[in-house]
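Note to self: the last two entries modelled the partners one at a time, which told us nothing about the interface. This time every component goes in together.
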Amino acid sequence: MSAHPDKDLLAAHASGDAPAERRPGLEEHLAGCAACRQELAELKAVSKMVKDLPQAELPVGFLARLERRRRAEEEAPAAVPVLPWSPWRLAGFAATGLLVGLVFFREVRYRLAPEMLGAAAVDTGDTGIQSERPADLEADQLAAARQAAVSRGAWGAAADQTAPAAARAEAESAAPAGEAAPLAAPAPAFSGAALKKEGAPVGASAFATNEQIQADLERQKAKMGIREVVPPSLGSSDPAAGLPDRPLTKDEAMGYMRQMTSRLARLNADANAKKRPTVDLGKGATPRILGAADASAPLEETERKKAVLAAGAAGGAGSLAMVRGAKGARVDEPASFEPPPLRRAAAPAPGYAAGSADLGGGQASAPPKVLVPRGFWSATTGGLGTDGGAVITNATDWEDLWRRVGRPEPLPAVDFAKEMAVAVFAARREDLQRSVEVVSLVEESGRLKIRYRVKDEAAKAPSAPYHVLVAPKSELPFEFVPTR
Amino acid sequence: MPEPEVTGTSGPAPVSQKGAEEAFLKAAAGPVYNLALRLTGNPADAEDLAQDALIRCLKALPSFRGDAEPTSWAYRVTMNAWKNRVRGEKRRGFWKTLPLAALFGADEEDGDRPAAEPAAPDAPLDAGLETLEAGEAVQKALLTLDEESRAVVVLREMKDMSYEDISAALSLPVGTVKSRLFRARAALKERLKRFVEGA
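The predicted structure of the combined assembly is written out below.
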């Protein structure tokens, strides 16, 4: 008979959970071992006993007490500890951390750091000036003088001397044995002659003048082969050009950062201006295209064509571009670049004067037609803060405008095949309450005249007003006309 | 005996929060109380534990809708509540005051340590069991197991949960669940020898 299986295996077998590979052996053993069979039966019986434990009924009133307890807990929530430790322990940890941080900061940062930096400096070993701090200078000078004295052997033990008198006194007291040193000699180790010999500054004082320091620095630099790197002209496009290959001082770093940011900002501004040319609509308001740089000078005809083409190439910005010719306030149609066939062919020549009646395209004889907007939104704040107007003919720009003015309503649906959106903005004023509104949309004389009015009230509130409306689509070139 | 399983809601789903809560309580309050009773061994603690667990369930009910069976989810919450309770009581040294303190030795963290065999001598316990009915004897024997083993035994034998479900409810690997179960069974058998001899 094989060995008795251990209790756990039998227990597993009682519920059929013995590993498959052990089962044949088990069965074989059980066939021949009554004791184990008995064990197995007892184990099965225990399982059954647990299984047969009676199902206790819910005690009377259990659910009511549950409700009560739930209400109580909702009113005064149980003090669940939010933190794993008590506040006291946490405070202790925090204080320890602070202390460690402070000590570290003081010791490492202030004490060891100069050593770390000093180690990087090249030590040529001669008595040159190693650092520029006055205390160090003095110490360096003293060390140099000391070395000189030691090397000459005249004043063996004379170490810390700051003045000839003190030196003499110490020399007298030191009295090196056997030294036939001329104690009365008027030339202490710190004499001008000695110092001059070493190339160190002259004079009774141990300090060096600025010029002497500079001269020594130049000598050191020449010795070490350091070249001063002059920042290149601002024409180079590499923003990091001109940075010397060494740690910068704070002022140097600030200067370079200022240089770099201004350089990059200028590059950016140039790129933006190329993308979206702006023009003056004349007559007071100087509109700006959404997102463009400052208004530029009026464009010539060729420039106008170039701008239109460029805006089209940049894609998507075009519908807000307002371009004008050399003179006057004639405005071309929004360059949405789905060219309405009629009008493009009849693009007027440059030099077209403002206010002229006809624009060609055969629209002149049509009677004025008033466009009725179907919805408008306006506010005294939230606009672009600059004078401007726009006619929007595609959904992207519509959404962009909606987001910029920050209306709380969801984006209204506009069918740009049949409708367009018109927006006017007025410049921000801090001292006046401004409001702007579109007075009328009239198609007349072959143009869409958008008349707008800016109202100022003497209330001290910053305002950046806007007025947006949705109107039936007009194919005519548009013009923003201020009215009273 | 196996519980009547409630597999999701039948009929029109309860629209209101109140209706959902009532349906849940109807399905789960009884089984949860039973589990708590077998785990704690006395009705007062069982009611406390069961209410604790049910309140947690009700709080989390909105995010539960319709996923798994409500009872197994409720069992899992009960086991968590019980673990917290046991841990808290251990930390406060509650068990030290009980004469059976030596019995509860296993830590939650030691997943694979064998169930602690009771250090108290067997004789007094067995002498007491003679006069008890089978049900009470089993309950007392269950209480001699450590909490994890007890939970495994109750969930497996009484509630008929699968090993995977028990493993999820107790956050133990399936292998550990099985080994705890078999060892507990053997220990129970020793304790309940008088009742099962001659079976």
